[in-house]
Design goal:
heterodimer; A: mainly beta; Sulfite Oxidase, Chain A, domain 2; Immunoglobulin-like; five-stranded antiparallel beta sheet; 6 helices; B: mainly alpha; Cytochrome Bc1 Complex, Chain D, domain 2; two-stranded antiparallel ribbon; 8 helices; 37% helix
Chain lengths: 422, 201
């Protein structure tokens, strides 16, 4: 949109004013009053608008997208630069509220997104049950339904934090978490129908993708009370990359165990020890031992605005961010402007739901001096999000998963914001 | 109100069923009436279950008939695996499969089958269902057992003349069998906010 030279015509000026509005400066032009003939198309009051359409799309002015990614330490992007992407990251810096649009929900899959005809899809429930049964999607949709607004976070979210990745955005570091309304049937409804035997303590969940991804789910009280078999996301069918037509959803548990494209549940007495819960998704410690079945995502928060690689002007800014905990509700979020020396309570935006992204806000007037912005949250169990050095002291820097340390953003004097490991 | 009544009825039925169960009056947890409550879903046949039931667990349950040797496995690996994992399973570009023993407690741990995987049966479960990446579920039981034999030999877990089958695979003790601990979290005890407030770092 940049125009060279002094002779700026009116169309260019209007274009420029749009971009000025976008960065928050004053808009000087009011289109419509004395517009020239050629400007009519820019004045929404002087041309008929578009007709209704069968399936909506966002405004063409809205450009925020997911960002392709792969392993720790690898560059993010799309196309030739990143041919081996196996995940995509949600643009947290661009979102409002707590719900992630389905089209921007992060992705992680282990051998692509399968194309599944829902009419042919079946769910088998067997193993330690009285009645092994097969369900069609239509039958599952007829069972008593359930709904839950909750976050889903890959346990690899923020894995670049262990090795102190530099000059990254909040999307780069934190984009593997999203929140949706999930719709489906409670797992307990299905288990009642098949009659679970008393010795069943674990359940294998298996996807019908090319990875045949399989994970063992412990049948704890939390799981039995809260787990869902989902066919809906944000009011419509699941997106293909979220498991269409059927996925397991375990509120608060690491993303990988929320098996997508679900085709089979097998009840057993012991964990099945699949590759995903042994070779992967285990947390290696400095002494060479590894935590296993670290399923709960612990409390975590991050300031999404202002955040890494953004540039701000002095003056008013509402600090905004997200906090969440796999153990329940977020009860408190504090913000520090001085790298953790002093803390002030942020306002939590309703709704504040258990195991769900919770938005927090904090008004701030930036005076042009260097500042280090941090947030930390507390959940209803009393767990406090730890400073980085406390987390590293316990787990070292090789555990890959479950990084949930306090995030620091340094605001430099010129308004540039960079991530910092404080 | 009707729905509430239905719920109450359901829970009353459940309570009766549980009581009968506890008293040993019925042998299974739920009565036939409960099963028919929704009338949705159908019983799976043995044949259907057999076709879908592809998992393999540490006890060896799920392992098929057949057997494989290190020598056969070398051929399978060279033709179907080496392109992604390298000629000796160490070169990549995809996951390194061989070596790395005694590196887990170092600053640069190398997690491979030999250094990290706790159960040999997991190899069957994973390789059959997910490998080769471009043709999952295409290996025969003999091919799968063979490539497992080669991988375990390369990792110095079995001898070169070992035969891998449904009996021998579950008995293999992997080097990192005792390398895992159950989730102890919360393991990081951050200071209470009041302790940090106003202090210096």
């Amino acid at each position: 949109m940049k125009e060279g030279g002094q002779n700026i015509n009116r169309r260019a000026f209007l274009h420029q004013s749009v971009s000025l509005v976008a960065v928050g400066a004053a808009a000087l032009a009011v289109p419509g009053v004395h517009a020239e003939e050629s400007d009519k198309a820019l004045d929404p009051m002087r041309v008929p608008g578009a007709l209704p359409r069968a399936y909506g799309e966002r405004s063409p002015f809205e450009k925020q997208t997911r960002l392709g990614g792969s392993g720790p330490g690898t560059p993010h992007g799309w196309g030739a630069m990143a041919p081996n992407n196996f995940n995509s990251l949600t643009p947290l810096q661009d979102l409002h509220g707590i719900i992630t649009p389905s089209a921007l929900h992060f992705e992680r899959h282990h051998n692509g997104v399968p194309a599944i005809d829902p009419a042919r899809h079946r769910l088998l429930v067997h193993g330690l049950v009285e009645r092994p049964m097969i369900f069609t999607l239509k039958e599952l949709e007829r069972l008593p339904s359930a709904s839950r607004i909750a976050f889903l976070e890959c346990s690899g979210n923020t894995w670049d934090g262990w090795r102190e990745a530099q000059d990254v955005t909040v999307q780069d570091l934190y984009g593997l978490t999203s929140t949706s309304e999930w719709n489906g049937v409670k797992l307990s409804t299905l288990l009642e129908t098949v009659g679970v035997r008393r010795e069943a303590k674990w359940m294998l969940a298996e996807g019908s993708d090319a990875a045949g991804l399989d994970r063992s789910v412990p049948l704890t009280d939390d799981v039995l009370n809260e787990a869902m078999i989902c066919y809906g996301q944000n009011g419509e069918a699941l997106r293909p990359e979220q498991g269409y037509p059927l996925r397991l959803f375990l509120p608060g548990f690491e993303g990988n165990i929320n098996v997508k494209w679900l085709r089979r549940l097998k009840l057993g007495a012991a964990p099945f020890m699949t590759r995903w819960e042994t070779a992967k998704y285990t947390d290696l410690l400095p002494d060479g031992k590894a935590y296993q079945f670290t399923l709960v995502m612990e409390a975590k928060s991050v300031i999404t605005h202002p955040s890494g690689q953004q540039h701000i002007q002095p003056g008013f800014h509402e600090i905004r961010g997200l906090a969440w905990s796999g153990r329940g509700r977020v009860t408190n979020v504090e913000v520090s402007l001085d790298g953790g020396r002093t803390w002030q309570t942020a306002r939590l935006q309703e709704p504040v739901l258990p195991k769900c992204h919770t938005r927090f806000r904090f008004p701030w007037r930036w005076n042009g001096q260097e500042a280090i912005l941090q947030s930390r949250c507390v959940d209803e169990t009393g767990y406090i999000q730890p400073p980085r050095q406390e987390l590293v002291k316990e787990r070292g820097t090789n555990s890959l998963y479950h990084y949930n340390a306090i995030q620091s953003w340094r605001v430099e004097r010129d308004g540039q914001i960079r991530n910092l490991y404080a | 109100m009707d729905r509430y009544a239905t719920y109450m009825h359901k829970y009353a039925m459940l309570a009766v069923a549980a009581l009968l169960f506890a008293l040993g009056v019925v042998s299974s947890g739920r009565s036939a009436e409960d099963q028919a409550e929704y009338g949705l879903g159908r019983l799976a046949t043995e044949e259907e279950i057999r076709a879908w039931n592809i998992d393999v667990v540490p006890s060896g349950d799920g392992l098929p008939a057949g057997q494989g040797t290190v020598k056969q496995g070398a051929q399978v690996f060279a033709t179907k695996c080496a392109a992604c994992h390298g000629p000796t399973g160490t070169e990549g570009p995809k996951d390194r499969l061989v070596g790395g023993q005694n590196t887990l407690a170092t600053p640069k741990p190398i997690k491979t089958i030999g250094s990290y995987w706790p159960y040999a049966t997991t190899l069957y479960d994973y390789i059959y269902r997910a490998m080769p990446f471009n043709a999952p579920q295409s290996l025969t039981p003999v091919e799968t057992y063979s490539v497992i034999a080669w991988l375990l030999f390369q990792n110095k877990v079995i001898a070169e003349d070992a035969v891998i089958d449904a009996q021998s695979l579950p008995k293999i003790e992997m080097p990192n069998r005792n390398g895992f601990v159950p989730d102890p979290r919360p393991d990081v005890r951050a200071q209470a906010p009041d302790d940090l407030r106003g202090g210096t770092r």
